[in-house]
């Protein structure tokens, strides 16, 4: 059985042997700490009946760990130069396979049907390329894939925004989008020293548990998110000013004031103080007004 790739020396050796050069533009920071790799995989609570989808396997350090725990592992990698390396590092794990492509362009529902139909549950587990963290997470959430967990290593600051509660400066439309679909939980803060090459920022492992039911009743999700975005468009502005800039026409000001009063929301508050339940109430009232 081939040795694990999860140490700084093995990682360097594999990179050297294949003449591989790391591409910063693809967010290639490889993890080289066996404990952290075990913690990431462990947070997904995998077993032989379950599947794991990895995004960006790199040279396969996390993929190997996932393959030790899950029944099926599928890893999507954009960089063709990594395919021969992965063939080698995953050789002992026939239930782990690689799909060459851009996760943002692939049809993930089709991939689910093809690869995971025999699994009781599937989680996404990944050390994400930081330049596309948010679009990847939003795709996974908005496409409503049948996920158990999303366990990802991302920039610490982005993880803190995902988990933020109303009232603080980290709380924003990303917090609301993530928490509308999932319950977030910080798993670990990770220093730059465990990566090759080291990123410029601290990282964090966050676990998002897919909710069975939304935390508030929303009649029109598109409108709900449109209103959330509008209310954070200018963070220093009041709710009513942001709503007048993005949701209501100037002439609708009296109607907007009535709606806010009906919802029990003070128009001088700022977007960052409203809970998901309050945004839901507001969106449902705007929908009723427009009908
Ligand atoms: N999983 C490995 C590890 O932990 O060492 C590598 C993680 S590295 C931070 C991110 C990986 O994602 C790289 O291998 C990169 O080539 C790949 N990647 C970047 N953009 C991608 C995309 N749009 N779709 C799929 N993979 C991508």
From TrEMBL:
<keyword id="KW-0698">rRNA processing</keyword>
<keyword id="KW-0489">Methyltransferase</keyword>
<dbReference type="InterPro" id="IPR001737">
    <property type="entry name" value="KsgA/Erm"/>
</dbReference>
<protein>
    <recommendedName>
        <fullName>Ribosomal RNA small subunit methyltransferase A</fullName>
        <ecNumber>2.1.1.182</ecNumber>
    </recommendedName>
</protein>
<feature type="binding site">
    <location>
        <position position="127"/>
    </location>
    <ligand>
        <name>S-adenosyl-L-methionine</name>
    </ligand>
</feature>
<feature type="binding site">
    <location>
        <position position="102"/>
    </location>
    <ligand>
        <name>S-adenosyl-L-methionine</name>
    </ligand>
</feature>
<dbReference type="GO" id="GO:0052908">
    <property type="term" value="F:16S rRNA (adenine(1518)-N(6)/adenine(1519)-N(6))-dimethyltransferase activity"/>
</dbReference>
<dbReference type="InterPro" id="IPR011530">
    <property type="entry name" value="rRNA_adenine_dimethylase"/>
</dbReference>
<comment type="function">
    <text>Specifically dimethylates two adjacent adenosines (A1518 and A1519) in the loop of a conserved hairpin near the 3'-end of 16S rRNA in the 30S particle. May play a critical role in biogenesis of 30S subunits.</text>
</comment>
<feature type="binding site">
    <location>
        <position position="56"/>
    </location>
    <ligand>
        <name>S-adenosyl-L-methionine</name>
    </ligand>
</feature>
<dbReference type="InterPro" id="IPR029063">
    <property type="entry name" value="SAM-dependent_MTases_sf"/>
</dbReference>
<dbReference type="InterPro" id="IPR023165">
    <property type="entry name" value="rRNA_Ade_diMease-like_C"/>
</dbReference>
<dbReference type="Pfam" id="PF00398">
    <property type="entry name" value="RrnaAD"/>
</dbReference>
<feature type="binding site">
    <location>
        <position position="77"/>
    </location>
    <ligand>
        <name>S-adenosyl-L-methionine</name>
    </ligand>
</feature>
<feature type="binding site">
    <location>
        <position position="29"/>
    </location>
    <ligand>
        <name>S-adenosyl-L-methionine</name>
    </ligand>
</feature>
<comment type="similarity">
    <text>Belongs to the class I-like SAM-binding methyltransferase superfamily. rRNA adenine N(6)-methyltransferase family. RsmA subfamily.</text>
</comment>
<feature type="domain" description="Ribosomal RNA adenine methylase transferase N-terminal">
    <location>
        <begin position="36"/>
        <end position="212"/>
    </location>
</feature>
<keyword id="KW-0694">RNA-binding</keyword>
<dbReference type="GO" id="GO:0003723">
    <property type="term" value="F:RNA binding"/>
</dbReference>
<dbReference type="GO" id="GO:0005829">
    <property type="term" value="C:cytosol"/>
</dbReference>
<keyword id="KW-0949">S-adenosyl-L-methionine</keyword>
<feature type="binding site">
    <location>
        <position position="31"/>
    </location>
    <ligand>
        <name>S-adenosyl-L-methionine</name>
    </ligand>
</feature>
<keyword id="KW-0963">Cytoplasm</keyword>
<dbReference type="InterPro" id="IPR020596">
    <property type="entry name" value="rRNA_Ade_Mease_Trfase_CS"/>
</dbReference>
<dbReference type="InterPro" id="IPR020598">
    <property type="entry name" value="rRNA_Ade_methylase_Trfase_N"/>
</dbReference>
<keyword id="KW-0808">Transferase</keyword>
